[in-house]
Write a structure and sequence with these properties.
The structure is a single chain. By secondary structure, the chain is mainly α. The protein has one domain. It is 68% helix and 0% strand. The chain contains 3 helices and no strands.
Length: 63
């Protein structure tokens, strides 16, 4: 209970709106480490696939 009382961090967008009396333009989602790692792996795979596709197109144009 004491820790909750001393905690002065903002918890959500609605609290920001109430404190600053301003509209919320957007939020940044919180991702855990595993989600971030998975997204990074997916991005690498997409990049590799795109590069392979470009290589195949280039080889097709040359041949």
């Amino acid at each position: 209970f004491l820790l909750e009382f001393l905690d002065n961090t903002i918890k959500d967008a609605e609290e920001v709106r109430k404190i600053f009396d301003l509209p919320i333009l957007g939020t940044i989602p919180i991702l855990d480490d595993l989600e971030m790692q998975n997204k990074a792996k997916q991005q690498k795979q997409k990049t590799r696939l795109r590069l392979k596709e470009e290589d195949l197109r280039w080889m097709n144009d040359m041949g």
